[in-house]
Amino acid sequence: MTDNKDDFEAIRQIYTVLMLHFMDGMKQSDIASAMNLSASKVNRLIAQGRKLGMVKISVESPFQRLVELEKRLTDSRGVSSIVTPAVAGSPDTTLQQVGRAAANQVLETLRDGDVIAITGGRAVSAVVENMQPERRFDVTVVPLTGGVQGKFYTDVNHLASRLAERLGGRTMLVHAPLFAENQDQRDMLMEMTSIKEVFNLARKATIALVGIGSIVTPGSSYYDLHPVPDLDREDLIRNGARGEFLAHLIREDGTIADHPLNSRLVALAPGELEQCPRKIGVAAGPAKVLPIRAALNGRFLDTLIVDEETAASVLETLEPFQNVA
């Protein structure tokens, strides 16, 4: 039977080696030399220390609040989350930080041969402008919707071309308006060979990069998208719409709103991205809280990239609902 004194000496030696290695940063070879041990003995003592539970590693972020928000979002809805700092009094800077984080997230997983499908919107535009790859990628970028000319962030074809240019890839464009004049015209456009080909490719996308749109504030991008200049915002809200996803008006529970505008959309429906392995939603600002909640309730995303103030507000609305459920 091993003597207690021997046990103590063995533990003391393990402790000394662990302190020198993990706290003082000494190499195992230097520890062996300092303690007149063989390198294999030092390695064995470190392994024993780990087995005995003497090594506990704690990694803390200087942005611990952001890490906690990410974990809460993931626990609440099962989406991988990246939360960026909010810059007080500067929504544009906050959006650019979200765009930079989303760009880096795309680049971390992007592979040659991938298809990237995107929407328009200010947030997606911020992602495109912050995309700084270290090499060229053999990828194809395609729109998920028809386009609206007039502003750089509403013209999804412009954003798709710009993203393909930055990545060194190619693009296929949708030469059709986002809103058709009626449902029959929409159905006809969706069956056109050139448009059908792009949308078929979008359905097989490896990465979908999408904005999450607000319909609450009069200045929301949604009101730049459609051809009705005097669209009644209050009417949309009364009909249950809380946001837009792929330009589709969606309710709080994530279902597609029963609104005539949805039937005129030249765009993929949210459910058609179900097989896409990386659905990245990008949003910033208080106006996006309700739309984000609706998109999360609809299970449209597997990754959400958002600023900290918006993330906190989304959680305030999600967690009480979850507790009741």
Automatic annotation (TrEMBL):
Pfam families: Sigma70_r4_2 (PF08281), Sugar-bind (PF04198). Coiled coil: none annotated. The keyword Transcription applies. Keywords: DNA-binding, Transcription, Transcription regulation. InterPro entries: NagB/RpiA_transferase-like, RNA_pol_sigma70_r4_t2, SorC_transcr_regulators, Sugar-bd_dom_put. Residues 62-316 form the Sugar-binding domain. It comes from the Bacteria. Residues 17-51 form the RNA polymerase sigma factor 70 region 4 type domain. GO terms for biological process: DNA-templated transcription initiation. GO terms for molecular function: carbohydrate binding; DNA binding; sigma factor activity. Belongs to the SorC transcriptional regulatory family. This is Sugar-binding transcriptional regulator. The lineage of its organism: Bacteria, Pseudomonadati, Pseudomonadota, Alphaproteobacteria, Hyphomicrobiales.
